[in-house]
Write a structure and sequence with these properties.
The complex is a heterodimer.
Chain A lengths: L3 E4 L2 E4 L5 E7 L5 E8 L3 E10 L2 E4 L7 E2 L9 E3 L8 E8 L8 E2 L3 E5 L1
Parallel strand pairs in A: 2-11
Antiparallel strand pairs in A: 1-3, 3-8, 4-5, 4-9, 5-6, 7-8, 9-10, 9-11
Chain B lengths: L3 E4 L2 E5 L4 E7 L6 E6 L6 E6 L5 E4 L2 E5 L5 E6 L8 E8 L10 E3 L3 E6 L1
Classes of the chains: A mainly beta, B mainly beta.
Chain lengths: 113, 115
């Protein structure tokens, strides 16, 4: 089944404790992206990757890192999480940067205390 | 960036009723997307539109790409309880240039269906 998977689905952590949220897609998509969703602010792009080893900042990249060493994986790294990064995170992928149809993962709900 | 205005913000309807929602942009789009998000899940792509005037259906859902290219409409016929969720429109974040895959989203329409 074609899908985007994320792990973990739920995470509660403390301020400053590094964490990684994994994202994987099995559709051989070139383009992958991370979003956060907050009440009243909608979906905002954090980082995106047009292909392996090519990443760039989205609208709200501060406090996040990403890497794209393999086509299928696009982990989101929070080196020193803070409470304002408490949010619902989604990974998405599309066939290429020119194809806007993005397919989303199930989400990761992160709480930073 | 692009501004997408989606309306209505919420709808409370009875099962069996038809639903209409719309989305307008401040710029001309070449693609409109409609997503549905259910509680605790990620957005699911429902319909993609590529051409002004295009009308596309997916089961009981029908979406239209407005003639002006600045709006799009989503209709749901004969609603059922599992239609409950948030419906988002989306389009290219940089309509006048290269979006690099970046989407801009409407604020969402929250649909509640009473049995």
């Amino acid at each position: 089944e074609a899908q985007v998977t994320q792990n973990p689905r739920y995470l509660i952590t403390v301020t400053g404790k590094k964490l990684t949220v994994t994202c994987s897609q099995n559709m051989n998509h070139e383009y992958m992206s991370w979003y956060r969703q907050d009440p009243g602010l909608g979906l905002r792009q954090i980082y995106y990757s047009m292909n392996v080893e090519v990443t760039d900042k989205g609208d709200v990249p501060e406090g996040y890192k990403v890497s794209r060493k393999e086509k299928r994986n696009f982990p989101l790294i929070l080196e020193s999480p803070s409470p304002n990064q408490t949010s619902l995170y989604f990974c998405a992928s599309s066939q290429s940067v020119y194809m806007l149809e993005q397919y989303f993962g199930p989400g990761t709900r992160l709480t930073v205390t | 960036g692009q501004q997408l205005n989606q309306s209505p913000q919420s709808m409370f309807i009875q099962e069996g009723e038809d639903v209409s929602m719309n989305c307008t942009s401040s710029s001309i789009f070449n693609t409109w997307l409609w997503y549905k998000q259910e509680p605790g899940e990620g957005p699911v792509l429902l319909i993609a539109l590529y051409k002004a005037g295009e009308l596309t259906s997916n089961g009981r859902l029908t979406a239209q790409f407005g003639i002006t290219r600045k709006d799009s409409f989503l209709n749901i016929s004969a609603s059922i309880p599992s239609d409950v969720g948030i419906y988002f429109c989306a389009g290219p974040a940089n309509a006048g240039g290269t979006s690099y895959g970046k989407l801009t989203f409407g604020q969402g329409t929250i649909l509640t269906v009473h049995p």
